[in-house]
Write a structure and sequence with these properties.
Shape: globular
Structural class: alpha/beta
Helix content: 40-55%
Largest sheet: 5 strands, parallel
Radius of gyration: 16 Å
Distance between the termini: 16 Å
Number of helices: 8
Number of strands: 5
Strand content: 5-15%
Length: about 200
């Protein structure tokens, strides 16, 4: 898998995605981090909705907004890959399923929505218990800031991730990393797993 260049990080909130994304970007030669949610009108509206204690729209509406952003971001990925060896992203369409597909019917519908988005070459899932993730959040930022940031919600998202990644609809290569470790140990596990797929940091 030496041509694996589009690498996606997935995981519940406070699993360490931003930290590991930044570390991997430093390790890989000629890599770039992709902002999957734009600063345009749709991206701003997504962030506005997430800042509420209760979502002002239903699951499929949120999924539609996210998948539209990802469809547009896919063109950006292709463009960036003409200039960079690796494109790294924090969340991709697995998040739309984990956070918005509450029923089987919603999952099927959201999977259809995601057919326009680019398939990653590798998916790094940072696995951490929701309670420990919330402990990290409280220590870092204190009270809740987004609608999904409660133990109950994160537990539900965590369980949906397990189902989704056990049999991904796009058959992507899934790398599951124990995120309940020291930051450098997590980074080491990621680099080892990517190396086994032919990804090199030189």
């Amino acid at each position: 898998m030496s041509d694996s260049r589009f690498i996606v990080f997935e995981g519940i909130d406070f699993s360490g995605k931003d930290t590991q994304l930044a570390l991997l970007n430093k390790e890989l030669s000629n890599s770039v981090i992709l902002n999957t949610i734009s600063k345009g009108l749709l991206g701003r509206r997504i962030r506005e909705y997430l800042s509420n204690e209760v979502l002002p729209v239903d699951n499929l509406v949120m999924a539609t907004m996210f998948t539209a952003e990802l469809a547009m971001a896919s063109d950006t990925v292709d463009h960036l890959l003409t200039k960079n060896n690796y494109v790294l992203a924090n969340r991709w369409y697995y998040s739309t399923l984990a956070y918005n597909a509450f029923t089987f019917e919603e999952r099927v519908e959201i999977e259809k929505m995601n057919t326009r988005a680019k398939k990653p070459d590798a998916v790094i899932y940072l696995d951490i218990d929701p309670v420990k993730a919330m402990d990290r959040k409280i220590n870092r930022v204190g009270k809740n800031k987004e609608v999904f940031e409660t133990v109950e919600n994160l537990q539900q998202v965590y369980e949906r991730y397990k189902v989704i990644l056990d049999s991904p609809f796009d058959q992507s290569k899934i790398i599951i990393i124990d995120a309940d470790q020291d930051t450098r140990d997590v980074q080491g596990d990621i680099l080892k797993a990517l190396s086994e797929l032919g990804v090199r940091n030189d």
